[in-house]
Specification:
Elements (H helix, E strand, L loop, with lengths): L1 H6 L6 H50 L6 H15 L2 E4 L16 H13 L3 E5 L5 E8 L2 E8 L10 H39 L12 H46 L4 H28 L5 E3 L1 H14 L4 E7 L4 E3 L1 H18 L3 E7 L3 E8 L9 H4 L21 H11 L3 E6 L6 E8 L1
Parallel strand pairs: 6-8
Antiparallel strand pairs: 1-4, 2-3, 3-4, 5-7, 8-9, 9-11, 10-11
Helix pairs in contact: 2-4, 2-5, 5-6, 6-7, 7-11, 9-11
Length: 439
């Protein structure tokens, strides 16, 4: 549970995780060094210097202990304050009460104040008005005595310089590391973009670069892409060649049957027509596998055009919800064929079909629903396989087909880096087919 909660705070991108790996040690080291310096070097050194000043203040208190007046006390202090480099004076009783005066950035001054107050109960105020002067006011039997001396006798000179230097150089090295890391991650990002584009049916230029491991992965991707493109080309040539070569004997058979009695030739003409339909499906299937250049397509306009064509044929095909606007990079020919195949299946096995389009920032969804008998859920995966016929589970009176309709749709979806999802329609009661393409 704690591990899954921690994962939600970890960056998802490689660049973010690399930045975290780079920044986390720097920040931790910065904190450790700063705390160690403040606690050991700064606090301890300041405390030792404060104890030295405390002994000098105790000495001055002993010197003026027997003095009866301020003038006599100052005369008694004269032989001591000069070698100690302390300026001693007494405040008049009419002077306002002195208070501590320390800047908010003066960490060492707070250490001095706390140390003096815990060891010298007669300390009235500790003041550091600037970075060079320190003032300590103590209570004596002659009134408040003000001691002024060099602040460097109490605190280290510019103790924040080490921390400031550490922070500045840490930031500088972090910036340099970020620039270097960005150059190292750029080849990985290029590889990811090339793989994503190829998954969506586009082949973008890519040259393997970067570290040896990244370069090896890029070279492997290039080889894999070349093999897949070669296999697609071979499949396309094979299907196209077979389909084309079979058209000639079919044409001869049709011409030969034209010389036979119409009633006797009718069954054979039906077989020839079925073979012709099968060849046309083969050509459509091979044509969808061919590499076509994607172009900016208005999905709403495409759906409206296709639905209009079916309506002119007298089919009950209607437009559903149209959400979003804009264009999507699509292979218009393949996408049109996929939508028409879905509508063809819908009107073949049902009486009505509805086409809706939803365009969001991340994806395009084209939905075709019908009021037919639908497909059982356990046969959804089987239905999209090539040459698979599910007529017994639907309606055998609507025509057998060749089993390539949904397979062509799946092939078009994969060529665009998308998927075909089958489900039950909640509104029409038949099959619901969602063609989802990532943008």
């Amino acid at each position: 549970m704690a591990r899954s909660r921690l994962k939600s705070y970890v960056p998802r991108s490689l660049y973010g995780r690399a930045a975290l790996i780079l920044l986390l040690p720097v920040v931790v080291l910065q904190l450790v060094v700063s705390i160690s310096f403040v606690r050991r070097d700064l606090t301890d050194v300041t405390g030792q210097m404060t104890y030295t000043i405390m002994r000098e203040i105790s000495l001055l208190e002993q010197v003026i202990a027997d003095a009866d007046n301020v003038e006599g006390a100052l005369v008694s202090l004269e032989p001591y304050v000069r070698p100690l480099r302390i300026d001693a004076s007494f405040l008049s009783a009419a002077s306002p009460a002195e208070r501590d005066f320390l800047d908010w950035t003066e960490f060492s001054g707070r250490v001095v104040r706390d140390t003096l107050r815990s060891n010298l109960p007669h300390v009235i105020a500790v003041q550091m008005p600037d970075s060079e002067t320190a003032i300590i006011i103590i209570d004596t039997h002659l009134g408040p005595m003000k001691l002024v001396f060099d602040q460097r006798r109490l605190t280290a000179a510019a103790p924040h310089q080490l921390i400031l230097t550490l922070v500045v150089f840490s930031l500088l090295m972090t910036v340099i590391s970020f620039v270097y890391m960005r150059n190292q991650l750029r080849p990985i990002k290029k590889l990811a973009e090339a793989a994503q584009a190829f998954g969506r049916g586009r082949s973008v230029p890519y040259n393997p670069r970067g570290a040896s491991e990244v370069k090896a992965a890029g070279t492997a991707f290039m080889d894999m892409r070349a093999r897949i493109e070669r296999q697609i080309e071979q499949r396309t040539l094979m299907l196209s060649g077979v389909s084309h070569d079979l058209r000639t004997p079919l044409t001869r058979l049709r011409l030969g049957l034209a010389m036979v009695d119409e009633e006797d030739a009718k069954p054979m003409l039906r077989d020839v027509a079925e073979m012709q339909s099968l060849l046309d499906a083969f050509l459509d299937f091979s044509r969808d596998a061919a590499a076509a250049a994607p172009e900016a397509v208005d999905a709403h306009a495409l759906a409206e055009t296709i639905v209009g064509d079916w309506q002119r044929q007298g089919k009950d095909v209607m437009l559903g919800d149209m959400v979003g606007s804009g264009t999507v990079m699509l292979k218009s020919g393949g996408m049109r064929r996929a939508i028409e195949n879905l509508i063809s299946n819908a009107v073949r096995y049902g009486t009505r079909a509805r086409v809706s389009v939803a365009l969001t920032e991340n994806a395009l969804r084209i939905r075709v629903e019908d009021d037919g008998p639908g497909i059982p859920e356990d046969l959804w995966n089987e239905a999209v396989r090539p040459f698979t016929r599910l007529d017994p589970s639907r309606n055998q009176n609507k025509g057998s087909g060749v089993g390539l309709g949904l397979a062509i749709v799946v092939d078009v979806a994969r060529a665009h880096g998308g998927v075909l999802r089958l489900s039950a329609s909640e509104t029409l009661g038949g099959l619901q087919a969602d063609l989802v393409i990532g943008r």
